[in-house]
Structure formats: structure tokens, C-alpha cells
Amino acid sequence: MKHKLLPLSETMHYILLALREPLHGYAVMQKIETMSNGSVILAAGTLYGAIENLSKHGWIEPVGEEGRRKVYMITEEGRAILKMEQNRLLHILSLYEGSASNEEI
Fold first, then answer.
1. Residues 18, 13: Cα–Cα separation, whole Å
2. From the CB of residue 11, how many other CB atoms can be counted at a distance below 10 Å?
3. Any idea what DSSP says for residue 6?
4. Which residues fall within 8 angstroms of residue 25, CB to CB, at 6 or more apart?
5. Per-residue pLDDT tens over the stretch 7-64
6. pTM for the complete prediction?
7. How distant is the alpha carbon of residue 65 from its chain centre?
8. Which end of the chain is more exposed for a tag (fewer CB within 10 A), N or C?
9. What pairs with residue 74 in β-bridges?
10. Which residue intervals define the domain Transcription regulator PadR N-terminal in the entry (predicted)?
11. Alpha-carbon distance 57 to 72, whole Å?
């Protein structure tokens, strides 16, 4: 099952990983900044564009509201996508480890 959004961009990865718990957009931005040790800082426009895209593909869904803020969470399909991507990345990492043990890349 090859999807046009695969492989996931770094942004999409972080959003899906963050939304394994229900969060609103601003909380997603904060969580991603923390998860990435400050190396990924999403602009609101980038985040909301990605959320719209992920919703459209059924990988996340709104699960409620906090005041005016929509709260989203990953769907089963989204989890399946993350699992596929995890396997793909683990395979790539295994190729690094397959080279001579202390050899430079």
C-alpha cells in the first residue's frame, strides 16, 4: 500500500507521534518542540495545513474541544501508517549498523 504522503515528512512524523494522545494545535506545537529537543519548531500555518491534510486522509480525527480549540488524536489508520514508517526507518538504520562496526560513514 504505497500512499502519496509516504514516506512521511519529518513534520508529519512528529504530528502523528504527538497525537498518540489527544491534543489541540498549540499543545501539538509545544510537544513537537519538546520531542525534537527544540530542533523542530512549527509555524501555526504549517501545523494547521498538515492537520488538515492528515484529517483528510483519515490519519487523525477531531475528538473534542477545549474551549474554541479542536482536539485531535491519531486514528487506527494513522497508527498503521506510523508502524509502516517505523519499519521502513528501522530497516534503513539496520543498513548503517550492517557496515563494519567502527567504520566511518
1. 9
2. 15
3. P
4. 44, 47, 48, 51, 69, 70, 72
5. 999 999 999 999 999 999 999 999 999 999 999 999 999 999 999 999 999 999 999 9
6. 0.88
7. 21
8. C
9. 60
10. 19-83
11. 14
What is the length of the chain? 105
**What's the pLDDT tens digit per position in 74-93?**
999 999 999 999 999 999 99
Dig out the grid coordinates for 81 from the structure.
501508517
Chain position carrying cell 518542540: 33
Q: Which cell is 48 given?
A: 494547521
- For residue 25, the Cα-to-chain-centroid distance in whole angstroms is 13
Q: Are residues 26 and 18 in contact, defined by beta-carbon separation less than 8 angstroms?
A: no
Contact 14, 36 (CB under 8 A): yes
Q: Judge whether residue 99 has pLDDT over 90.
A: no
Instruction: Using alpha carbons, select from 46, 43, 79 the residue that is nearest to residue 60.
Output: 79
At 97, is the pLDDT very low, low, confident or very high (cuts 50, 70, 90)?
confident
